[in-house]
Amino acid sequence: MSDKPRLRQLKAKALKDFLRGVQRPEVDLVFLLQDLEDPVNVGAAFRIADGCEASEIILTGKTPTPPDSTIAGVGRGAHRRIPWRYVEHADEALVELKGMGYMACAIEVAEGAVPYYSLKYPDRVCLVVGHEYHGVTTRTLSVCDNAVYIPMYGKIKSLNVHVALAVVAFHVLHQQLICG
Known about the structure:
By secondary structure, the chain is of the alpha/beta class. The protein has helices at residues 12-20, 39-52, 69-74, 90-99, 138-141, 161-179, and strands at 28-34, 56-60, 84-87, 103-107, 114-115, 124-129, 146-149.
């Protein structure tokens, strides 16, 4: 007799029942996307926001906005469920959020950045991601409270924007469960 658990894919009602049993941690997450070019990254950010139950996505600069067929397709329609708004300048949106008690945290390899898993995140966090090649601007970094990075051990020194956002967002969301 094996101690291995019985594993099988869950579908439909069984999947919904299984996921209902998971309590979402009490963390208020906002995503700010600065000057992204690729609507795939934007759509994926909406899908991640839906999975995290983020309270808002703020699109800034030249970031594509809905309605956009790529954003809708990649995000599986999450742009209709997650509140979003467009603000021209990221730093102005961050000043507003900080006034509401959010910590602004850039996901960026920058001077003073720390590994994403070493920072203690408060209950209100705005995660900031920047342009696919140029990252978060110096102007926006100057308004952020912190910057975190994901250590990379191979030859490629970064992840795709939406992948990095997912890694850090789910860590922030579950940090209290992991770290106590």
